[in-house]
């Protein structure tokens, strides 16, 4: 650049002084320095992300970890079976937590403990200074099934079938495989990695395990990246958190004999009108926003006007704003339904009332596609010859996403289906299963600073 400026200056005529030339040369040198600085500060490109991931994949210790994953495939399958057959109903995860803590200790993690809410924590120390940034990887202990649900695993070739066998027993087993492989390969990451088997991901658990974790500055303020292992699709890469609002609505009225008290207000009528009104509400397709009237209870006899009935409703959206609008509109529907019932029938024995009880509030969020964690993730998928499908879902990653912490959800297995049903299944065929675990390992190590 300096040479070009000097040549242009010389062309202006012989009257150009040495001082002028020197000034031009100085300006040129400064421009060169600025250009060099800009080049250093330029954001990484897809090519540079791919180079980081490819170099990591070529490391001897990564290859040794991959070999360890391959050798322990059968143990991974048996761990899935073992964990699935330890019941972990909502709010009753303690037995599985004790077993998982023992597995953490056996795998060589340090500072293994069960915290105040039941999360199992185990640390893999990095080479950096104590108290520095860390990466957190989590899989959830709880299942959606109530106590007493049969959990004996059936085998159909390489397919495992049982309530909760995939969601998230396989996630727990996959996390253990990664820990064991890193130990076998003697991998040293610059950042600490905290591994977690957390409670309260399903249903009315309302993400209480991860909420508790991130309520503590010792974790919230140190987390550079968060991974949830929760999904069964080889190409699935969850970067958006679907938020939800859940309500239990308790409708009450005077009750009475179905014949003798006919004409009195009926809380069930108000509840029915609420459901009908909910399903008349328009919602956008983008951002995807949904609702469901999910559980009803109440009444005492077929020949009695009920004194009390309950309705549970789930509302979800990829957008916090869209979810807030839906919540507002639905609660207005409930109020109108109660008012309409009180206007339609006699209230001489008392009016219908409704108590709106929030029972779930999962924050919406997203990790932008421009975030280094997502960019590295895309590069890792492509390194495994998988075209990543960026998705949104409701997982433990919602909590850190809502706090602005880079967070994604990775698959626990290549294929599975029928989640939240007694005939849930997971495929454990070795080749696709190993590909998913290699991918999870690759991104975990990249996020933990290995290059």
Strand-helix topology:
Elements lengths: L1 H9 L7 H24 L4 H12 L2 H12 L1 H12 L9 H13 L3 E5 L5 E5 L9 E7 L13 E3 L2 E3 L7 H16 L7 E7 L9 H7 L2 H4 L2 E7 L6 E6 L1 E10 L3 E2 L9 H12 L10 E10 L5 E2 L2 E10 L2 H25 L8 E10 L2 E2 L5 H12 L5 E5 L4 H5 L4 E4 L5 E2 L7 E3 L2 H18 L4
Parallel strand pairs: 3-6, 3-7, 7-17, 8-16
Antiparallel strand pairs: 1-2, 2-6, 4-5, 5-19, 8-15, 9-13, 9-14, 10-12, 11-13, 18-19
Your description of this structure?
This protein has 451 residues and is of the alpha+beta class. The protein contains 14 helices and 19 strands. The strands form five sheets. Strands 1-2-6-3-7-17 form a six-stranded mixed sheet. A hairpin with a 5-residue loop joins strand 1 (110-114) and strand 2 (120-124). Helix 4 packs antiparallel against helix 14 (430-447). The longest helix has 25 residues, at 320-344. 43% of the residues are buried. Residues 1-42 have low confidence and may be disordered.
């Amino acid at each position: 650049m300096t040479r070009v400026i000097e040549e242009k200056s010389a062309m202006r005529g012989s009257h150009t002084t040495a001082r002028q030339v020197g000034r031009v040369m100085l300006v040129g040198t400064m421009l060169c320095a600025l250009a060099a600085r800009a080049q250093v500060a330029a954001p990484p490109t897809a090519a540079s992300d791919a180079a980081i991931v490819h170099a990591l994949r070529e490391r001897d210790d990564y290859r040794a970890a991959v070999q360890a994953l391959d050798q322990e495939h059968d143990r991974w399958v048996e761990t899935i079976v073992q964990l699935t057959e330890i019941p972990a109903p909502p709010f009753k995860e303690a037995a599985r937590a004790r077993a998982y803590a023992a597995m953490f200790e056996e795998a060589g993690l340090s500072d293994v403990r069960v915290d105040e809410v039941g999360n199992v924590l185990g640390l893999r120390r990095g080479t950096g200074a104590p108290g520095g940034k860390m990466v957190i990887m989590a899989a959830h202990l709880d299942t959606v099934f109530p106590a007493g649900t049969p959990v004996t695993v059936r085998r159909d070739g390489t397919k495992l079938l049982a309530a909760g066998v995939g969601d998230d027993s396989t996630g727990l087993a996959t996390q253990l495989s990664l820990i064991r492989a890193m130990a076998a390969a003697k991998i040293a990451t610059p950042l600490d990695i905290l591994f977690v088997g957390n409670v309260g991901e399903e249903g009315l658990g309302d993400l209480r395990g991860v909420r508790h974790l991130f309520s503590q500055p010792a974790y919230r303020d140190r987390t550079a990246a968060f991974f949830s292992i929760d999904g069964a699709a080889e190409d699935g890469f969850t970067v958006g958190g679907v938020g939800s609002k859940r309500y239990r609505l308790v409708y009450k009225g005077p009750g009475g004999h179905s014949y003798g008290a006919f004409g009195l207000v009926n809380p069930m009528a108000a509840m029915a009108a609420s459901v009908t009104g909910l399903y008349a509400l328009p919602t956008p397709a983008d951002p995807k926003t949904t609702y469901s009237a999910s559980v009803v209870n109440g009444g005492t006899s077929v020949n009695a006007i009920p004194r009390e009935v309950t309705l549970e409703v789930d509302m979800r959206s990829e957008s916090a704003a869209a979810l807030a609008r839906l919540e507002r509109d639905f609660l207005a529907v409930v109020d109108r339904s109660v008012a309409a019932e009180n206007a339609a029938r006699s209230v001489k024995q008392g009016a219908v009332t409704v108590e709106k009880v929030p029972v779930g509030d999962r924050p919406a969020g997203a990790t932008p596609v421009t975030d280094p964690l997502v960019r590295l993730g895309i590069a890792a998928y492509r390194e495994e010859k998988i075209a990543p499908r960026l998705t949104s879902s409701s997982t433990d990653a919602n909590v850190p996403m809502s706090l602005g912490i880079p967070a994604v959800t990775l698959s626990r297995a290549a294929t599975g289906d029928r989640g939240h049903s007694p005939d849930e299944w997971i495929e454990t065929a070795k080749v696709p299963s190993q590909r998913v675990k290699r991918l999870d390992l690759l991104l975990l190590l990249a996020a933990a600073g290995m290059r």
